[in-house]
Amino acid sequence: MTSQAGRHFLQIPGPTNVPDQVLRAISAPTIDHRGPEFAALTTELLASLKPVFGTSGPVVVFPGSGTGAWEAALVNTLSTGDRVLHVETGHFATLWQQMAAGLGLYVDFLPGDWCHGASPEAIAERLAADSARTIKAVCVVHNETSTGVTSRVPEIRQAMDATGHPALLLVDTISSLGSIDYRHDEWGVDVTVAGSQKGLMLPPGLGFNAVSEKALAASRTARLRKSYWDWQPIIEANRRGFFPYTPATNLLYGLAEALRMLHDEGLPEVFARHDRHAAATRTAVRGWGLEVLCADDREHSSSLTAVLMPEGQDADKVREIILERFDMSLGAGLGKLAGRIFRIGHLGHLNDLTLAGTLAGVQMGLQLAGVRIDPGGLTAALDVLRAE
Length: 388
Ligand code: PLP
Prior knowledge:
Elements: E1 9-11, H1 20-26, H2 36-53, E2 59-63, H3 66-77, E3 83-87, H4 91-102, E4 106-110, H5 120-129, E5 135-141, E6 143-144, E7 149-150, H6 153-163, E8 168-172, E9 191-195, E10 206-211, H7 213-219, H8 231-238, H9 249-265, H10 267-288, E11 291-292, E12 304-308, H11 315-326, E13 328-332, E14 341-345, H12 352-368, H13 376-387
Parallel strand pairs: 1-13, 3-4, 3-5, 5-8, 8-9
Antiparallel strand pairs: 2-10, 6-7, 9-10, 11-12, 12-14, 13-14
Helix pairs in contact: 1-9, 2-9, 5-6, 9-10, 10-12, 10-13, 11-12, 12-13
The structure holds pyridoxal-5'-phosphate.
Pyridoxal-5'-phosphate binds at residues 14, 65-67, 92, 141, 145, 172, 174-175, 195, 204.
């Protein structure tokens, strides 16, 4: 490591850089989680969390990772032997359907090429063919963190509605919530799954489920075994500002501060900032003469960009050089994309100059790795940042 001074650039697509204000909030003394001060904190927190999900319904907060929140979404709404439709958008969609199968659900896994989002037409086709209504839920990853592709959830909902099929819609927003426009109620999502460590600018450790009326009704008859993840006792205790177990008190302090920051900036402004940074990143990548993995212009992720390496070049070598020389972490290719892509995270607590530094580091790393690129890529990205 030649450059230890200054701040590490954590430009993976989550966990993201935690703002100093949030870190300071987390460091406050832990309080009695059964006392009145805590009840006031929870009540305010849950209220300011709802607009981030775009819901007026309950949002359940778990101490746990995003994977736990996936499990909570499934075990609260489904019963052993139910059929679920998952869509192969990438590595995380693959893991979620593996979990569903492991829990005793029958999984239909719609194949995908890891360059496109979930196809509304293909989902509708499967539902239309299911005349016995055996499919109980459609599970979609909104922003596939392994590929940098964002699925068109409103179109998926419309396509589902057009078939008249009653399946629930479960959506993973782990790397989109708080970064990319998302509307649980308006888009007719039944369970939205999220985590703390990406757009919400917190350390890892909290998982979330936003729950529709229909999902809540399904939870009353769902028979998959659950205990810790059971929504009912949590929603019940939350009404009085409490949790049925010891909550992650200090992460909740951090969440309160992060929500204040998001609301102060304004959610539309937060989404516009992410869109702009993503556009500047794509400009750099294309300016270098490299390819963005996402193959559909309607589906570019605003929270990360996956960069495809030219044939014969190792993406992990580039990441290794960038870490050693410039103290910057980039996301690795996951699953079948290992070594073929690297991922630039541009979500969370990020401004123009942090992005400019990130892209400068990537450009220099590519050059040091011997990848033939046009160095005009960085200048083109700076032009985008300067222009707006
Ligand atoms: N889903 C998506 C889209 C993710 O990006 C991740 C993690 O990066 C997960 C699920 C799993 O979340 P966690 O690692 O917090 O368990």
